Amino acid sequence: MKPVIALVGRPNVGKSTLFNRLTRSRDALVADLPGLTRDRHYGEGRVGERPFLVIDTGGFEPVAKDGIMFQMALQTKQAVAEADVVIFLVDGRQGMTPHDKTITDFLRKSGRPVMLVVNKAEGMRYTAVVSDFYELGLGEPYAISSAHGDGVNDLVQEALDMA
Ligand code: GDP
Ligand code: MG
Question: Where does the record place a coiled coil (predicted)?
C-alpha cells in the first residue's frame, strides 16, 4: 500500500492548492484504492521515486450537527482515520485562529503523526511567519508556499519518512 497523506485545516488555508500541486500531471482520480473510499478528493503523487496518496478535505469548522460544514467535518475525520500522516495546514498571512486550536485538539486525539505546516509563506521571513503557531504544541512548524511550490518537496519527503 502506498502511504496516505491527509491535508487538513480550516477553509482557505490552501489545502486544495497544495493537493493540485502534489497531484499535478497525475491522474487526479485514483481509480481503484482498496480499503479507501472512492472520492474525487483522493489523488496520487510522487516525489523522486516515492509514490504516495493524498487526500484533500473540504475544511474543518466546528459547527452545528447538520448541514454542509458538519458533513465536511465528518469527511475530514474519515480522512484522518485513513491517513498514515497528517499535514495540518495553517495560514501564515492570517495567523492563528481559534479554529486552528480546535483542529489541533482533534488531531492530537487522533493519534496520527501530524506535521504543522504554515502556508502562504512566500516572501516572508521564517521566524515571522511561524511565530504565532508554536503555542499549538505541535513542534517546529514547516513553512511552505503551495502556490509557488517553495518547500513542498522537502515537506513531502519528511511526511513520507514519518508515514
Ligand atoms: P482550501 O480552502 O484550504 O482548499 O484553500 P484553497 O487551496 O482553495 O486556497 C484558498 C486561497 O488561498 C486561494 O485564493 C489560493 O489562491 C490562496 N493560496 C493558496 N496557497 C497559497 C500560497 O501559498 N500563497 C498565497 N499567497 N496564497 C495561497
Ligand atoms: Mg479546498
Answer: none
